[in-house]
Amino acid sequence: MKLGRELVLASASPRRLELLRSIGIDVRVVPSRYDEPQREGLPPREVAILHAREKANEVAARLPDALVVAADTVVDLDGLALGKPVDDADACRMLHALSGRAHDVHTAFTLVDPVARTVCNEVETTRVWFYDLDAEQIAAYVASGDPADKAGAYGIQGFGATLVRRVEGDFYTVMGFPLGRFARALARLGLSPNGAKQTSP
C-alpha cells in the first residue's frame, strides 16, 4: 500500500520504520543530523516537540520536495525529561527512579509537506506504571542491551514489557510513534496509508 507519494523518515530508529511499514506506508530512511542538545528548563513535552521539529526541518532542508516526518520520544518523570542513557550506569539510575512509579511518555512528530506548504506538529502522551523492580531485575535488563537506545532506558516491547504493570493511553506512543494520530494528520493532507484520497480528518 502506498501514500501516492514517498514518505521520508528523518530517523534511523528501526522501531519507527517498522511501525510505519506495519500500516502499509512506503518509507525511505534519511537520518537527521540534528544532535538533540539538552534543553534545561524546558518541560519534557516541549522537549519532544522541539526535537521532532528540528529533526524534520533539518532533513526537509536537504530534500525540499520530500514529504518528511520525524518523531521524538521523551519519558517524563515528575517533570524531569529522561532521554537515552549515556551508559549502563545511567540506565540503571533511570530504571531505579521509574521502579514502582507512574510516568508519562510524550511522543511528538512533525510532518513537513512542501507540496501542500504545510507543517504539522503534534504530540501524544501516554501514562505508564512500572512494577517494583529490584536491583537484580534491573541489572538483568540492562545487561540485555535493550535500554541503550531508548528514552527512559526501556522499551515497552520485548524484554521491557516485563517491567510494565499498566498503560493508560496509546501503546504505540510508548513504542515511539502514535500511529492513529499520524494517520489522521495524513488524512488532513488528503493522504492515507492505503493510497486513497481523503477529504476530511
Number of helices: 6
Radius of gyration: 17 Å
Q: Tell me the series of helices and strands, N- to C-terminal.
A: EHEHEEHEEHEHH
How many structural domains can be distinguished in the coordinates?
1
CATH topology name, in short, is Maf protein
Reported for the largest beta sheet, the result is: 7 strands, mixed
- Strand fraction equals 15-25%
Instruction: Tell me the name of the CATH class.
Output: Alpha Beta
Helical proportion? 25-40%
Question: Could you outline the blueprint of secondary structure elements for this entry?
Answer:
Blueprint: E1 7-9, H1 14-22, E2 27-29, H2 44-62, E3 67-77, E4 80-82, H3 88-98, E5 102-113, E6 118-130, H4 135-143, E7 164-168, H5 171-175, H6 179-188
Parallel strand pairs: 1-2, 1-3
Antiparallel strand pairs: 3-4, 3-5, 5-6, 6-7
Helix pairs in contact: 3-4
